[in-house]
Amino acid sequence: xKAARLYGARDIRMDDLPEPGNPGAxxxxxxxxxxxxxxxxxxxxxxxxxxxxAYDSPLVLGHEFMGEIIALGQNATDGNHHPLKVGQRVxxxxxxxxxxxxxxxxGHPNLCPNHTFYGVYPTDGALQECMIVHARNCxxxxxxISDGAxxxxxTLGVAIHAVDLxxxxxxxxxxxxxxxxxxxxxxxxxxxxxAAPLYAFDKFAWRxxxxxxxxxxxxxxxxxxPLHKLQQATGKRGADVVFExxxxxxxxxxxxxxTRLGGRLVLVGIPGDDRLVLQHxxxxxxxxxxxxxxxxxxxxxxAIQLATSGxxxxxxxxxHHLPLAETPxxxxxxxxxxxxxxxxxxxxxxxxx
Length: 353
Ligand SMILES: [Zn+2]
Ligand SMILES: [Zn+2]
Hints:
The protein is α/β, with parallel strands linked by helices. It is built from ten helices and 20 strands. It has helices at residues 39-47, 102-105, 147-166, 181-192, 205-213, 226-234, 250-258, 280-286, 300-307, 327-335; strands at 2-8, 11-16, 27-36, 49-50, 53-54, 59-60, 64-72, 89-92, 95-96, 116-117, 130-134, 138-140, 174-177, 198-202, 217-220, 239-244, 259-267, 289-292, 318-323, 343-347. Strands 3, 7, 8, 11, 12, 19 and 20 form a seven-stranded mixed sheet that branches. The protein has a six-stranded parallel sheet with strand order 15-14-13-16-17-18, with helices on both faces. Strand 13, helix 4 (181-192) and strand 14 (198-202) form a beta-alpha-beta unit.
């Protein structure tokens, strides 16, 4: 079967791998249907590492994915502990916590030190035709959620967790730096949580436009002084809650400067150089509460709810569909941030119209 593997920085090759075989107890065999490319994949693609995780043998990337179950191991129950069936379409939570450590027992599986993650070394991800995954990571999705939208449930889960950490109150003002898929979903969720006004910043015009369409006051950081704009808009007060969902470089300092006295700053973006750069006095004098967002906590059920009866449009975030064979070009295109590139979906089995 075909798989796209990362060999080094900017080096993805199409390989033939053996079929995965039969799933063991607690596992299922998945025919992967769709995989989304994420900013964290782009870090690994560009640098050969994410944070302090490096790889030293070829790795199948892809952690935002869904597929169809084609075989079941014994006791294959899903993330809600319901039995799975062959033929079901499922979205897959890429994190496998140990379920037994102190953090897991305390309800923080996202902080489990013993976890594995599909698509982060040494665990292969989903850019392959078939794979074995843990049944408990699977969440069945209704037909009303498209394959592409199914992959975006992971992105939405990240956004839900970040907004949970923001502890928004009705009519809190919110600023979001970075209007990629995660930042845009944070804006959407903040709006639904009753936050207002919403301010948004990005360095690409088409992403600023998407934030405007959501009802945010949005500016391009390259055309304007973003702090000045925010201060003008808030009467120099700053925003109650600020989310950094960009490259976590100088944008962290900017986000802290945008936060009001005593406000809350949620850091979601991951810096390429693995450094957090923030002037101490900015945060201290304001008495900011700074929260680091780490993945998510059993957010798939809420994400599925939002994407079905909640009416949240995930398909609108997808800009491109490409077949598995074009994965190398898809990554190159995404890493160049070409105009109009938003969420790229790899249709692993080819596209059904
Ligand atoms: Zn992701
Ligand atoms: Zn654990």
